Amino acid sequence: MALVPSWSAGAAITDDPTVDAATRATFQKLATAVLTDRTQALVDGKSGSEDRRRASGFSGKVRLSGAQSREESSALSELRGRKARLAKLGEKYSSAKTSVKLNATQVKGRTAKVSVTETTTLTYRKVRGNEPKTTGFQAHHELTFKADGKGRWQLTDIRNTDDGVAVNQIEPPPVVPEPTAVPSTSAPASSSSAPAPSATAPAPSTSAPAPSTSAPAPSTSAPAPSATTATPKSGNPPAAPRAAITPNPPAAPKNFSASGYDYKAMADYAAKHWNNYNPEYPSFDGAGAGGDCTNFVSQSLKAGGWKHVPGYVYDYTKWFGNSEIQSHSFIGVNEFSWFALSSGRVTSLANVYQLDVGDVLQMDFNRDGSKDHTMIVTYRSPQGVPYLSYHSTDTYNRSVASIIASYPNAYYYAYRT
Predict the structure, then answer these.
(1) Which residues of 33-42 are buried (b: 16+ CB within 10 A; e: fewer)?
(2) d(CA 11, CA 13)
(3) Which of 4, 164, 314, 384 is least surrounded, with the fewest CB atoms within 10 Å of its CB?
(4) Is the pLDDT reported for residue 113 higher than 80?
C-alpha cells in the first residue's frame, strides 16, 4: 500500500500551482511581516505578543508553516535576549522601520524560491549629543515556499544570503575563506619606491604563511604576541593580541595629525559606499567564497591616504587594490591584519571601546584563531562608544555595543590606524 501525504487525504490534488502577481505580492507582504517582527523584537518596550502579531496574522493561500512559526517564535525569543544584553551595555532602540523588496521568484513544481532585499533602520533611544540618531543595514534573504495539495503556499524556510552579520540576524554568520585574488605580475603602479614584480617573479616560498585558515590560534590564557614580536623576515605573520570588550576602559586618545592620514575622508568614503558599492572596485559580496568586508575597509583606508605597496598578490607584506587586481592583504581578513601590523600602519588597542574614527575592528566568530570579519569606525560618541560601518551585511553606524550584544563570545581585535 502506497503512503500519501496527509494533506492529500480526502481531497483532490491540484496541478502544480502557478504564482501570479497577487501571490508574489503576498509573498512580499509575509516576508515584510516576518522581518519586521524580528526587528521589532529589538525595540525597547515591545512585548512578546506585539512581536508576533504580524506574521501570525497570515492565513489562507499564503502563510507560515507550523514548523517555521515555531522557528520564528524561537528567533524572537533570542532577539529579545539580545535586546536585554544590549540594554545592559547602555543602548536601546526607540523605534524601527523595515521594508522588503522582492527581487526574483523561481517556481519549480510545488516549491517557490523568493529572493528579497531587506532595508532596516533603527532609531537610537536617548541621543545625548551629536551621535548618530539611527543605524541601518541592507540584507538579502532567500525564502522557500512550498505548496500543499490545494495549492496553498506555506513559508518553510528563510536563509540569509549575505556573507556577514545583521543586527536582527539569528543564525551564526558563515565562517568561510576570504575571496581569492587572481595572481598577476602587473601590480598597480604606486608612488612607493618599492619595485613592481618582474615578469619572472618567483613563486611564493613553500615556507611562506598559508592563507587565512591557517592563522595561528590565540592563547586562551594570555594575549597573542604583539606586532613587534614578529617581522616579515621571520617567515611568520605577526599575531594580533585580542582586545577586551568591557566598557569604560582607560583612555587611549587618538592623535589625528600624527600619521598624515585623513580619517574624516575614510569615514566619508564608508558613509558614501556602505550600501552604494564603488564600481571602481570588484565586489565580493555574496560570491560564495567570502564577503566584501575587508575589501570595503581597504578602500576606505585608501581614500584616507593609505598608499599601495606593489608586489606579488600572495605576499602579505604587499597591499594594493583596484578594478583589475587586489592583493590578498587588500581583501582577506587575516592577510590584512598581517600586512597592517608588519608594515607598522596599525598598532593594537587593548579594548574595543578605545577605537576612534578610521580605526579597524576585526572579529573571530568561532574563536578558531582565524579572523572572519573586518569593520571600520565611522563615528565615536562623546560618551566613548565607537560606531562601525561594514559590508556583508551592508551596515552603517552600528555601535560596538550592539555588535558585542549579538556576539558576546567572539574574539575581537582592535587596530589603531
Answers:
(1) bbbbbbbbbb
(2) 6
(3) 4
(4) yes
